[in-house]
Amino acid sequence: MFSRLTRLQTIAVCALPVVALLATAVLAPLPFSVAQPGLTANVLGENKGAQVITISGAPVRDTRGQLRMTTIEATSPDTRVSLPDVVDSWFRTDQAVMPRDSVYPSGNSVKEIERHNEKQMKESQDAATQAALGYLDLDDKDVEVSLKLADVGGPSAGLLFSLGIIDKLDGDGTGGDLTGGRVIAGTGTIDAAGRVGAVGGVALKTQAAKRDGATVFLVPEAECGDARAELPRGLRLIPVTTLKSTVNSLVALETGKGSVPSC
């Protein structure tokens, strides 16, 4: 013999699976990382007590201004990001929700990811050196470049490394500084041929740049839209595609001669 359920009891019984499902969705870890503006470092100076760029085998200039590479800080690869974290970050301009795989290689342990990032940084430094010396028509057998940037991994500082090497060795090519005395920040990978590549996270990197005094931001051309999305007031965007065009843009900005592209 079965007793008849009341209307409220029936609704309550049917609602239980839905409530359980919602609770699971809220508490379950999601394949995302939460990122925010990270540190910046002047590649023309020191970082954590060590010179970022050291050059031997050629005269080195005294430089004014700054060339600041930019980073984002993301939740660690083993951090559980839940739905409330995603919703909270969605409505904030100082945070961004990014697919975990775009920040960390999928399926790797923390140690493996650290080794991967270190490898990418080393490859980026080698390519940046080759690109800069190639631009200046210098032989890497005669000029030795050492790049050191503690606690930063990945390839996104490549462009700034190349520009720093050029500024220290040749400036703007006529005795002036490549920066024109400004604080210039930016991001972008670079290959040995001097081609600039996209990196991701540029909307957060522009905020880090502005926070640390930059007035100009060099952004891979393909990421102009992302950079404009949350662009801080007073920060000028210059799109870049190659090392040569980047140098030309900075020289034009400094001298007032020639055009400077914009996003």
From TrEMBL:
Pfam families: Lon_C (PF05362). InterPro entries: Lon_proteolytic, Lon_Prtase, Ribosomal_Su5_D2-typ_SF, Ribsml_uS5_D2-typ_fold_subgr. Residues 153-240 form the Lon proteolytic domain. It comes from the Bacteria. One of its GO terms (biological process) is protein catabolic process. One of its GO terms (molecular function) is ATP-dependent peptidase activity. This is Lon proteolytic domain-containing protein. It comes from Streptomyces hawaiiensis.
